[in-house]
């Protein structure tokens, strides 16, 4: 993964979102926030992240589809609207510090007669599902798995962003907004990925 002088990943699909907050301050971004889309497809996530008619306008820098295809929606020097009300350590309002990566995944699933249903009513087969305890919850539940090719692309993107922007922190949305958010959830290997990328489990 290479990043060009216009703060875009080379060779990926680019659709600029109108939902943007102006340039980052000097020294930012220094964090990456990992999200799941909780949508049926990367396309539906991209539609929402580019929709400027919604009451709650949202965006992210990147969407990674399940096959690893990447769509960039904002250049990396422009603030996106993906974190919402958020706090971690002494910081709050992470949009002004962080790049947002949306990973195509249905999220938390409900088991019914051996099938697994998303909040938007789509069913997933058992081989796409894992059972695990969310870091913010006490009971095990079902989660949509992330394909290995998709995870490999997310990790390669993070490595490129670390190198180019000196990123210090890779955080899940669930860690900066634990009372509101469960993404990317226990199916995403957040701790092992940031240990490989940052040399430590949590910044
Ligand atoms: Zn999120």
Describe this structure in words.
By secondary structure, this protein is of the alpha/beta class. The chain has a domain at 30-105 and 143-198: Peptidoglycan recognition protein-like (Lysozyme-like). It contains four helices and 13 strands. The strands form three sheets. A six-stranded mixed β-sheet has the order 1-4-3-7-2-13, with helices on both faces. Strands 10-9-8-12-11 form a five-stranded antiparallel β-sheet, with no helix packed on it. A two-stranded antiparallel sheet has the order 5-6. Strand 5 (87-88) and strand 6 (91-92) form a beta hairpin. Zinc ion binds next to loops.
Unreliable runs: none
CATH topology of the domain at 30-105 and 143-198: Lysozyme-like
Spatial order of the strands forming the largest sheet: 1-4-3-7-2-13
Give the terminus-to-terminus CA distance.
23 Å
What's the Cα radius of gyration? 16 Å
Which cofactor or ligand species appear? zinc ion
Classified by CATH, the class of the domain at 30-105 and 143-198 is Alpha Beta
Q: Summarize the helix and strand pattern as letters.
A: EEHEEEEEEEEEEHEHH
The CATH homologous superfamily of the domain at 30-105 and 143-198 is named Peptidoglycan recognition protein-like
Q: Structural class of the helix and strand makeup?
A: alpha/beta
Tell me roughly what share of residues is in helical segments: 10-25%
Number of helices: 4
Describe the biggest sheet?
Answer: 6 strands, mixed
Please report the total strand number as a whole number.
13
Task: Provide mean pLDDT, rounded.
Answer: 96
- Overall 3D shape: globular
């Amino acid at each position: 993964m290479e990043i060009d002088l216009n703060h875009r990943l080379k060779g990926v699909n680019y659709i600029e979102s109108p939902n943007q907050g102006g340039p980052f301050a000097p020294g930012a971004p220094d964090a990456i926030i990992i999200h799941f889309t909780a949508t049926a497809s990367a396309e539906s996530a991209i539609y929402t992240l580019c929709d400027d008619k919604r009451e709650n306008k949202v965006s992210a820098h990147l969407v990674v589809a399940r096959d690893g295809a990447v769509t960039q929606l904002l250049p990396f020097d422009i603030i996106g609207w993906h974190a919402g009300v958020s706090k971690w350590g002494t910081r709050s309002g992470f949009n002004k510090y962080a790049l947002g990566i949306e990973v195509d995944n249905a999220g938390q699933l409900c088991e019914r007669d051996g099938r697994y249903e998303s909040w938007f009513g789509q069913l997933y087969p058992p081989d796409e599902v894992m059972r695990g305890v969310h870091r913010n919850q006490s009971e095990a539940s079902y989660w949509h798995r992330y394909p290995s090719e998709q995870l490999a692309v997310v990790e390669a993107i993070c490595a490129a962003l670390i190198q180019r922007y000196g990123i210090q922190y890779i955080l899940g949305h669930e860690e900066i907004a634990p009372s509101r958010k469960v993404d990317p959830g226990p199916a995403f290997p957040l701790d092992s990925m940031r240990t490989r990328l940052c040399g430590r489990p949590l910044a």
